[in-house]
Amino acid sequence: MPPNRRLPCTVRPFHNETVESFIARLAAANHLRVDELRSYLGVRTLKTTPVTVLLEPLSAVSGYPASTLRLAMPEFITAKYTDEPGLTERPLTTRPQSLARPACRRCVRAAGITTSVECWVTHEHNVCLRHRLWIGTGCQNPQDQADLRRLPQVCLAQRHHRNLLARHGRRWIHGRFREAQAIYLKWYEQHEFASQREVVRRMIALASATRRPLAKDAVLPTIFHPEIVMLTGLLASDRWERRLFAGAGGLRLFIAEITRREVLAGYELQETDDPLYRWITDRIALHKFTRYYPRSFGALHPEETTRPTQNRPARDFRLIPLPSY
Ligand SMILES: [Zn+2]
Q: Which residue among 37, 198, 229, 290 has the highest number of C-beta atoms inside a 10 angstrom radius?
């Protein structure tokens, strides 16, 4: 039986919060264990049970209307394409690559919440520009969020990242960002970077502003964020992709562009075990495949957020950048 009485204490839902996080906070506010609250909700949740069955019972026990909870928690948005106000451009939560991370601890405090909050995020949520905190890759809990006061170039890179999204479209950027991050960190692992002094300087700047032990997995993605975003812009550009495969020195120009954009000074492509070389060969294989199945090009670049049903930007219908080669 679903409950019909609200609990004595309620908690405010946070923007894009996960249902699990909201239930945990609601239980803690009422001095209940999470399993006690779940049994009070009266819903037997199995692996295949859709999370939307919790909407009405949660609304009853928290005292918030179901429409408010649906606006706050993207797991309750079931449509991929919708025109409902407030429900477009929200993170899709059912994809294998969907990300949930702790929300910026200072934004949470500013909302009057004293416990941690877990949120669904899209790939570009790496820096809280309001509080200059790293909230991206490697942050497992709010204490891992490093202070970027002494690394202004990381905050600038976050603005650059948002510009890339506006220029190329989210659909084409989010996969390239993940690939650029993997390529850059692999380069760091494989090569002694020419400017180790700069790496050490950035690490010291991060550690001295944060004044607590840094999360091991977050340090390298944080300090190399400017270069990773720069490389993302190059990989996501269909103009550069056409040039790369056009022959007549296209590869040479592409490699030179990596140095020109200050991604990696003096970079030379090594065909053995080079992550960028593998990326290029994978792209060629993808283009060969999509040449025979053009519709699959869109399917291989899935959406990251809910979208409006109409007036989608024309670039979202971008086709294979290489008609023939
Ligand atoms: Zn913040």
A: 229
